[in-house]
Amino acid sequence: MKPEDCGKYEACNANVCPLNEQWRRSTQLPGEPICFWFREYSKNGGPALVLSRCAQEMADTVATAYADIMDDTHMVISPYDTALAGTPGGQLRWGHQLIRRYLKRWAHTGSKFAQGARLPHGDTL
Hints:
The chain is mainly α. It has one domain (3-117).
């Protein structure tokens, strides 16, 4: 899959996209947007919600990248250490710890999908 396959692609400004094969090389700076699918995946029941809204391959890709970012055992490398950037062995780029921190906070907030399910259907004002 590639970022263009995402339904949110046109409006997305996230630097770290799980659908980009090179996502580990991307950096995350304070204040930059975080992938919608990462945010939804972090919620209570998020994995099932994500799977219900996108293709299995995309859900699996999001799940794998999410697990890598949330794994505290991964070494976070400096943005200046280009020799290690994107190498195998669980190396994450500088700034991915910001994503981890925000996702841990967002895990306790409501899902956009769940909010949409509570909207009234049919004729409204």
